[in-house]
Amino acid sequence: MGELRLMKGNEVLAEAVIRCGCDGYFGYPITPQSEIMEKLMERQPWTETGMVVLQAESEVAAINMVYGAAGTGKKVMTSSSSPGVSLMAEGISYIAGAELPCLIVNVQRGGPGLGTIQPSQADYFQSVKGGGHGDYKMLVLAPSSVQEMNDFVDLAFELAFKYRNPAMILTDGAIGQMMEKVELSDYKKRWTEEEVVEKNGSWATTGKPASRQRNVITSLELDSDKMEQNNLRFQAKYRRMEAEEQRYEAIQCDDAEYIFVAYGTSARVCQKAMEIARDKGLKVGLLRPITLFPFPKNIVKELAPKVKGFLSVEMNAGQMVEDIKQAVYETQIYRKVEFFGRMGGIIPSPGEVVDALEQKLIGEEK
Amino acid sequence: MMDIKEIVKPENLVYGKSELLIDTIMHYCPGCTHGVVHKLMAELIDEMGLQEKSVGVAPVGCAVFAYNYIDIDWQEAAHGRAPAIATGISRLNPEKFVFTYQGDGDLASIGAGEIIHACNRGENILVVFINNGIYGMTGGQMAPTTLEDMVTSTTPCGRDVDLNGYPLKMTELVAQLPGTSYVTRQSAQTAPAVRKCKRALKKGIRNVLDRKGTSFVEVVSTCNSGWKMSPAKANKWMEENMFPYYPLGDLKDGEKGNPVSNN
Amino acid sequence: MAKVRGAVVVDTEVCKGCELCVESCPEGVLALHLEVNSRGYHYSYMKNPEACIGCANCGVVCPDTCITVYRVKL
Ligand SMILES: Cc1ncc(C[n+]2csc(CCOP(=O)(O)OP(=O)(O)O)c2C)c(N)n1
Fold first, then answer.
1. Fold (CATH) for A4-183
2. Which of B14, B33, B189 is facing C54, going by the closest CB pair?
3. ipTM > 0.95 (yes/no)
């Protein structure tokens, strides 16, 4: 049993980062995630594990520091919130194009523009469809509890290095700010310089010894034939992620006629909504995607024949619902896929969700 | 009369290609200063035995392919962001010799923020700044460093300071920052200038190894194709027009922590 | 009278005929050849080999590092 604490989501994430043997953090303050860097600075991991923490002059600089640091083959990360992540888009595209592992945390707030500092899930498209320029994907994990803010840090790094690809923890201000009981992970040692060379020396800028060719980290390839080969390699990698990494939690889906699909904060709301609906005698289950890319479409396809419809519940204008529709479409069976959401930083209430279920899915049947 | 064959013998070699310069034809236009400065960096890394310690950061600009020419580990940056990338590399690997190699569009325009802050933090890196007064790679547009009245493809009637502002002296700016220890402006158009430039770069490298903060070496350069001149004429034009505005010499040579020149 | 003799070897395929070596030579040794290399550049060569003092200025200024310089003391 690990150490039990009552902590804020953002602070837990910072703690988990130190404990997982992360080598470097670069960030820029933005609400509602500033506690991550504040906590790191307070903890001074450089005195303990040797981890570097640096406040950059902007998100543009922060992501490029991550790009440089990731190129050295070490475990590095940044965190930000929606407007800051938009600024990072170019850098993330370079990181994906140069096939480097790193962790990016987006504690979402409502947009567009400066929007609101209240929680939101409006960056789903930006996170799972690319966000920056060019055909690339990030691995995207969506924690729905403070515990998962702890657990997904290590998982994100593991996946990032497995695929040499940026991984994102996509959460929101509610989970970042929420206090819950958490079991912290045990400390893992940072990789030694020798371990870095051993694990990643074939591609990282560890310094060119006589024994190997020079390593060049770049996303540039002016020869179109070669660039297309690169693109095909990336796509093959993304397909492999889709085949191997779909993660989800299915709650009471076995006998369900209707399925709520929701992640993060809205999944917490749906958990309650499901209980209310069940009390009313409605057979409702909850499918909670844990990976947003790869989207857990296999389970949607598996459930589709058994249920009457899906309700995607999101804190945005309806984004993930498109991925659910796509999955259902691939089954060649017609099932209703509806959406309910709130925007502007408003978290839907469980009652609203049940109402939406009755109106949008059940009502039509009557 | 002595036969050439008598002279051309390994024991008589006085100048040759550094082993760290990769055997390939550079993509630069004939007479481009980039080639000379690449060569100096390769020679220095070679002579100082730093191949295994070095990580170069290539910019967006004509020097984007610097990584094809010097046999060390490299990372290619996003436009202007090389100092941030170098920060990331160097912070995690303080024992490495990390340098950025940037043009004036890259460093003085889109990357003005990153360079100022890297220098201000005193990142332990060498910045090699190629100031050719123009955007070479994209076809000779105005750079922040373009001289007043200088014709470029986006200032066809010459740079109008009322419209475009004034030529930006990055090196003077950077010299004001306490994070820099060595700030100098060099050129590479004649053999003595190249030799002097090499000494400056060497000092910059030494400073990084001695962890003295940021060293910044501007090389006032030509872009003869962008300027639409022959290489020799471009050199002359540079001496007559660039040097008065961008005077050569050390602006700062001392210790990190001092805001202004103390040489 | 110079007590040294030098010689310059130009990798003519790499040379781009920028002429900077010609400009840099204090003894007027180098010139661009009338012929071109396979990439169409008039390459540099020793027009007056006897005058070379092996100062290496040509090599130092060459952006394409295609010049190797040798010197002997007489
Ligand atoms: C974000 C971004 N904006 C614009 C460009 C296009 N671009 C490529 S190189 C360049 C200018 C480079 O000029 P400079 O830094 O002076 O280097 P030089 O080519 O003269 O060596 C520009 C604007 C780009 N690649 N990326």
1. Rossmann fold (3.40.50)
2. B14
3. yes
